[in-house]
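> forwarded from #structure-qc
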């Protein structure tokens, strides 16, 4: 589902991560995450973490999105990410999965997990970066 992919990519953007209204629209109040680090987060802790972020030249590149319907109001999104700095150095290769739920007329992120993975080929496409 394109809207879920677009919203996931939006959450990679510093400006969105700093916008409290957008965060409350995009992230479910019962949100849970198991981060790439293995640490666990809930809605309050992830918001605090995003509020403390500083602007950076590092970009999140994302690719290979697949969306699976678990129920008509529940979607599983899987994809890959890597960080690319301003010199072109690529790091933090990660496989990711997100569960999005339809709340009223809006999709909200309810669960997210990042797992470190082997290096993969960076694909340039309309999605990501």
């Amino acid at each position: 589902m394109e809207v879920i992919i677009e919203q996931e990519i939006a959450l990679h953007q510093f400006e969105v991560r700093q916008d409290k209204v957008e965060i409350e629209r995009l992230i479910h109040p019962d949100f849970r995450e198991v981060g790439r680090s293995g640490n666990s987060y809930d809605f309050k802790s992830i918001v605090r973490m995003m509020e403390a972020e500083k602007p950076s030249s590092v970009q999140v590149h994302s690719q290979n999105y697949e969306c699976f319907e678990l129920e008509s109001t529940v979607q599983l999104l899987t994809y890959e990410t890597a960080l690319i700095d301003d010199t072109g150095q690529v790091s933090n290769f990660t496989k990711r999965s997100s569960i999005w739920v339809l709340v009223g007329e809006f999709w909200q992120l309810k669960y997210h997990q990042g797992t470190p993975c082997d290096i993969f080929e960076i694909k340039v496409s309309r999605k990501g970066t």
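QC bot note: The chain has one domain: 2-116. The chain has four helices and six strands.
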